[in-house]
Amino acid sequence: MDQDIAKKLFLEGGTFIFLGVPQETQFGIDMQCWNTDEDFRGIKMIPPGLHYVHYSPVSKGTGDVSPRSGFMHYFKKKEFLVKIWDKNLEDISKDEITEESIQRLKDNLLNLDKHLAPYPYEIWQKWKLLTSQITGQLAEKLSPESGVIRASVELLSMSNEERPRGVKLPETDPDKESADNPTSGQSTAKRVKRITRDEKEDSMLPNLKPAPGASMRFTEIPRDKYPPGATPGEITKHYLDQSYTLELMIAQHDEPLHIIGELQFAYLCFLVGQSLDALEHWKNLVMLLCSCEEAIHKYRTVFFHFIQTIEIQIEEMPEDFLADIVMNKNLVYKKLRELFRTAHITKVDGRLLTSIEKLKDNLTNKLQWDFTDLDTDDEDERPVVVKLRNVTE
């Protein structure tokens, strides 16, 4: 590390004290991860800003690694954050640490220093790009109420009435019902027949729900893509151009750019936190942002930062996930092609156009993706002509 930077971080950087962590625990900050030794006490010289602290207990007997847990924290200049390991929970202790205890650790910092690992500064510039639109307040808003982001969320039993999905099968006996009422059995049979195979399979799954405070608090993407009272023509328009849905999402944030912050947050909860729920939300946000026509002109700054963000995110994707995108040209490729087509047809210009052209060139060179013929539909996107049979035939 450059000596001037080292001196600055020594004077202004944050300190994270993590006491009682078992040896060989997987511990990391941002995109760096280590196995701790017996002298480990935490991290020093942390650049002020948002950081992701994460950890995974490791079984002494088998070496099995538990699902990753962690939290995001915005470190202020010279901040001194203390956490203690709970051996029984194999997790961070939920007990409050007294100010007196924290002050004693501060007074003993000179002796603690040799047990603190320096922040891996070589990852800092890339980390800043990945978190450019995530404020401390936004990270707190999106994190679970417990504050802990887990790769594997604890699930609890729930009643059938609480289930957000699935179908409760009729509890009545159709034969008995039809004996009392000749038409009721027939109607019951029709209701049962309408249940799809997926719904029936879902109805047989265990009734589970996330433990209170354990779920991510992502902004819910509206199911209805159109305003109330929309005509059939308007409904079709809003499905093709989902600017209305994006407007509803942006309205739930303090400022438009926070939708990009949420995209970054979800991506990091997948990349670093190993959360599949976060990956699913990230995919849905990418699909939404790539499906807007009017909004790309109204929210030019949002889409400029979306292009900047998606480029660095694709660069940092895990190899197996990226290989799937390249080989199968999955939704990331298809939706970006749709976005580029929209920008081409609606004549986006200026700084946004420059960033789009740069991203197209980079993806073409690195991944051999084809973004030519944007003014024509792909084969699987062309309208399908269906010949309808006459009801009298």
Automatic annotation (TrEMBL):
Polar residues biased stretches = 180-189
| GO BP annotation list | spliceosomal tri-snRNP complex assembly
Matches recorded under CDD domains: Aar2_C, Aar2_N
Which UniProt keywords are given for this protein, alphabetically ordered?
mRNA processing, mRNA splicing, Spliceosome
Residue ranges of region Disordered? 160-211
* Comp. bias (Basic and acidic residues): 160-179
Pfam families attached to this UniProt entry: AAR2 (PF05282), AAR2_1st (PF20981)
Q: Which InterPro entries match?
A: AAR2, AAR2_C, AAR2_C_sf, Aar2_N, AAR2_N_sf
The residues covered by the AAR2 N-terminal domain are: 13-144
Residues forming the AAR2 C-terminal domain are 218-371
According to its UniProt entry, what is the function of this protein? Component of the U5 snRNP complex that is required for spliceosome assembly and for pre-mRNA splicing.
Subunit: Interacts with PRPF8 (via RNase H homology domain). Component of a U5 snRNP complex that contains PRPF8.
Q: Spell out the protein name for this chain.
A: Protein AAR2 homolog
* Organism expressing this protein natively: Bicyclus anynana (Squinting bush brown butterfly)
Q: What is the lineage of its organism?
A: Eukaryota, Metazoa, Ecdysozoa, Arthropoda, Hexapoda
Q: Which gene encodes it?
A: LOC112047763
